[in-house]
Amino acid sequence: MKVFFLNIPFLHRFTRESRSPGVAPSGTLYYPIYLALAAGLVRQRGYTIDFLDAPAEGYDLKQTEDRVAKFGPDLIVATTVTASVAHDIRVMDHLAKQTGAMTMLVGTHPTALPIETLKASPSLDFVAVGEYDFTVLELVRHFDSGKTRQQLHEVAGLAYRSGEEFILNERRPWHENLDEIPWASLIYRDFLKIEHYSYGAQLHPEVTIVSGRGCPYQCTFCVFPQTITGQRYRPRSVRDVVDEMEFIQKTWPQNKEIMFEDDTLTVDKTRMRELSEEILRRGLKVTWSGNARADFDDVELLKLMKKAGCRLFCVGFESSDQKILDEMRKGGATIGIRERFVRACAEAGIMIHGCFLFGGVRETRETMRATLEMAKRMKLDTAQFFPIMVYPGTRAYEEAKREGELVTENYETWLRGSGYYVSQVCRGQLSAEEISAFTDRAYREFYLRPAFIWQKIRQFFVSPSERSRIILGFFFFLKKVFTRDK
Question: Does the pTM exceed 0.85?
Answer without folding.
Answer: yes
